[in-house]
Amino acid sequence: MTANVNTSGASPRRGLSFVDLATLLVTAFVLQTGLLPYHISGAAAGEPRPLFGTGSFSFPDIVSNLFLYVPVGACFHWSWRRRLGRGARAAAAAVVAAAVLSGVVEAVQALAPPRVSSLVDLVCNVLGASVGVLAASGVAWLGPRLRESFAWEARHRPLAVVVKGYAVVLIIMAVMPFSFTLDRGLLRKAAKQVRLTPFASLVEQSALEDSLRRGGDPRAYSLARWGRLRLWSRWAAEAASFAVLAVLVSYWLQTEFGFAPPGAAALVLWYGGLGAIALSVFQIPVLGRGLDATDALFRFAGLAAGSAAGGRSSTAPGAGAIGIVLSRRTTAFLASLVVLYIAYVGVLPATFDTGAGRITQALGTSAFLPFFGYFTSRADVMFIDVIEKLAAYAVFAALLTASAGPKRGESWLAHRKAIVLVGVLLAGALECVQVFIPVRVVSLTDPILAACGCLMGTVLADKSRAFLVAGSAAGEETSGDRPWSAADAALSTLAEPREDAPREPSPAEDAAKSAPAPPGSP
């Protein structure tokens, strides 16, 4: 009797996995997008409609169809790999499945009068799925190597992991709400709206506010005032986020590469400034963001402040990986600043109306119900509002966790409950104030988001402290035999002078060269 041996490189697996669930969700999304508005009635006005017509060569449509099927091809490939193993069979099955899915969608679109079935769309969908299959194959090859590299770096260089992770978070926050456009008309409009003059947006908003105030429309004036004051909160957040980046990078350069504080500050300002400009340019195709020179200006200010703070703190004891856990006094001060920021955003535009019936009017609307207002607002505005509130309360809770640890005999769970309660009370107090602000909406959504954000912040603070402590201990026990990357080597050459590098002569050598030669010397 011979046993069945699978030579495909991986043993087939059965059952529904996370990959299969993701594949089902992606397929449902494609069907939802391609079959809307579900109006299938055959030929319109008695005229025959061709299946897979030529369609029009619209560049935005081509790009959108390509990108739509990239995750389809990747998910199909990962799903078939579990059943067919590694190799060309799984890749071919994924492309065929994506082609069948696209063909079904285009065939149904031929029966829907509002839609147009196009052979161009079918070809673009298959090409996008093929790109997804190639990307999935690359991830399968690169994934184990990246996990190994991350595991080594997490054990021996935890601060490097923190710096890289924080940089990724900054990039993600800069391009929210991910509303990229490739439409040439919208891109030309965004290019015309580029503000290269600092504070130009503030001047425009102030002029609009003055005109509305003279016009006698109090609600429009309050909304314009809200927009002007909101600019300052956004710029403050930009400066604070880049200040934290500068502190992290400064610690990293000084502790792991031996940079002196002035050299670390210069390098942070140079490369951080280039990154700030790159982020501003990258925001041009994002609808609702655009390029504003004032954003880059405040990012530079944050980098300068963070570089100065990182240089002063680096000389303190324990300024290595553990040095990023600041003293309780410093974290308490930063937490108070975050509270001021949350309160500032919560009371905007600071135009109050204490007339009778305000409480009944605020509590009697449907928007008071949790998350009800988000169903009637734009998706991008809803997304940004949720992320900003979660992030603000998460940072507040993380700083509060670092500044006020649990008391003796108090469990971390009880301590987290206390911090979550503080966040909920803060959000509730701001909602009470918003009752008397006519243009604000009182809702139970903010206290719920505050509780979620505070819980996230406490968990993040605990995990970060444990990660840094464990990584520092591992780095002290074993130096690690993993070679540095090319970027590490380049940074090391900046910090450590080469033996064969030219140097300037000392004052004694200059004096010896300029002195007259003694009599009788050749």
Written account of the structure:
The chain is mainly α and 522 residues long. Helices cover 68% and strands 0% of the residues.
User: What portion of residues belong to β-strands?
Assistant: under 5%
Number of E-type strands: 0
What can be said about the biggest beta sheet?
none
Shape: globular
Model regions low in confidence, pLDDT < 50 over at least 5 residues: 1-11, 314-325, 476-480
N-to-C CA distance: 99 Å
Mean pLDDT figure: 78
Query: What share of the residues lie within helices?
Result: 55-70%
Q: Please give the count of helices.
A: 17
Number of domains: 3
Order of helices and strands: HHHHHHHHHHHHHHHHH
Radius of gyration: 30 Å
Task: Give a short overview.
The chain is mostly helical. Helix content is 68%, strand content 0%.
Features:
about 525 residues; mainly alpha; 17 helices; disordered N terminus
Layout of SSEs?
Layout: H1 18-35, H2 59-84, H3 88-109, H4 119-156, H5 158-174, H6 184-192, H7 200-215, H8 218-256, H9 261-282, H10 293-313, H11 328-347, H12 358-363, H13 379-403, H14 412-434, H15 445-477, H16 486-495, H17 507-514
